[in-house]
Amino acid sequence: MNWIDRVIEFISPQAGFARYRARLAQRALSDFERKYEGASVGRRTDGWFANSTSANTENAPALSRLRNRSRDLVRNNPYAARAVQAIQTNTIGTGIIPQPSGRSTRATKDLTSAWERWAETTECDADGVLDFYGIQGLVMRTIAESGECLVRRRWRRSSDGLSIPVQLQVLEPDYIDTTKSGTTDTGGYIIQGIEFDSIGRRVAYWLFQDHPGDGFSGRSFSAEPKRVDSSEILHLFRQDRAGQVRGIPWGASVIIKLRDLDELEDAQLTKQKTAACFAAFVHDIEAPQDPTKAAKNFTKVLKPGAIEMLPPGKQITFPSVPSASDDGHSSRVLHAVAMGFGVTYELMTGDFGNVNFSSGRMGWIEFHRNVEQWRWQLIIPRLCVPVWQWFCDAAYLQGYQSQDATASWTPPRREMIDPTREIPAIRDAIRSGVKTLSEAIREQGNDPERQLHEWKRDAELLDKLGLTLDSDPRKVSQAGGAQKNESNDGGKV
User: To which H or E segment does residue 284 belong?
Assistant: First the structure.
């Protein structure tokens, strides 16, 4: 109790008691806040403004600038470019392929052939550049670099000469009118160019006809967006918060770090180059009487292996070139950048100098978990499955029996780190029933039905030619010996 409290208590005991009680309550509140150090208020947290706004409120003013800066880094910074490339190549690779399944064997074969003509050629691309697997890679790259990507269904006329009258148009998120928000006449609402109905379902997208930043389209840009039904649009992005309707670039958390590192390395290089321009300094102990002669002394050029005799009164010194060492700062920053993108440091930088087999395998396994999540929670359910349905809808119009046709999707295989250990493990898993043969084949990036038919054709050809390979389990045991028939009537071998 200080002297002010004593004076107040002397004059008015009731006021003093109230003051004392308020102080106890404040002390209890402070003790409660200190239970979470992150919620404390003090010198260390001055200037830390943490808002409680929603994901959409946070994203709205930042989307355009984040996209532009992310693209600039990918264009000009090799680490950002490699991070985006690593996400694309490891997630998509050569493509996530379907295994169609129709109402009958005949319908399945017809759909498979139709899919190969449409999806495995540039026919499916509205720009006529990529096949469907190339579109997968472009979509994945756009999501990582720009935060989100749109794929629009484009119906075509029969006169367009396509085997399946539909094409896919890949659009960057700039096509969405981010400034369009508000309510609709039907009781719905619009958030950043995406329209929802009264119960929160996406019903439409408000899109520009041309890219807002395209100066070479040959057409005047129309600032008035058009409403496109959501059934014609696939909107792919990584959802980080509940209620989030737009995606942000995957490197958003490390944009400033990467930019600062880029500028630091550029400044260090400029410093090294500037220092290297000065090979030596000649000091004149006794100043010459003729200023013209003194000026000429500065034109001396050093040559490799030259030995010069200095006149009396001259002294030569060599500058010390500053060291380029950063005491591991760049490495620490690049580790943080790699984590921000969701890739490994070694994959982003190409630096495998400190990696052994065990640490490399652990890093690959952890990164592969990210890849599996991107495939099975983003690309397959939100791109591959809807595109397959679009294909089936268009194929039905062409007379194919595509009603209720489904497809199982097979990502590209994961390269084995140690095949001598992994292959026996796969074989044992199949033999013990933990894993099916089809599942194992799909994990290697192949179509089980297609591979088994190829194996059957190869086996029939080998029998016809009278050849026996030690890889043929029908005739050669695992130990390398010939298999023996258990019965004489074509039984188990």
Answer: strand 281-284
The radius of gyration of the chain's CA atoms, rounded to the nearest angstrom, is 34
| Residue 190 near residue 180, CB atoms below 8 Å | yes
Instruction: Look up tokens 């620490």; give the residue.
Output: 332
Phi, psi values for residue 205, rounded to 5°: -125, 140
d(CA 138, CA 427) in angstroms, rounded, equals 36
Residues above pLDDT 90, as percent of the chain: 53
Q: How far apart are CA 178 and CA 245, in angstroms?
A: 11
| Joined tokens for residue 23 | 């102080």
pLDDT of 218 higher than 80: no
Q: Which residues contact 20 (CB under 8 A, 6 or more apart)?
A: 1, 5
DSSP string, 136-179: HHHHHHHHHHHSEEEEEEEE--GGG--SSSEEEEEE-GGGB-TT
Contact of 121 with 205, CB cutoff 8 Å:
no
Cβ proximity of 237 and 142 under 8 Å: no
Question: 2-12, pLDDT tens digit by residue?
Answer: 667 776 676 77
Cβ pair 60, 190 in contact under 8 A: no
Q: Quick one: how far is CA 166 from the chain centroid? A: 28
In whole angstroms, give the CA distance from residue 234 to residue 387. 9
Domain spans of the chain, in order of start: 57-169+231-274+323-412
**pLDDT tens-digit map of 13-68:** 777 778 778 877 777 666 655 567 777 777 887 888 888 899 999 999 999 999 99
